Amino acid sequence: MSDAPRHGHDELDPSRIATARARLVADRDDTLDRVAALGRDFDGIVAANALVAVDDEHDPEGASTAFERAHVATLMARAHDHLEELDQALKRLERGDYGQCEGCGATIPPERLEIRPAATTCVLCARSDPRRPSRPA
Question: Is residue 35 helix, strand or coil?
Answer without folding.
Answer: helix
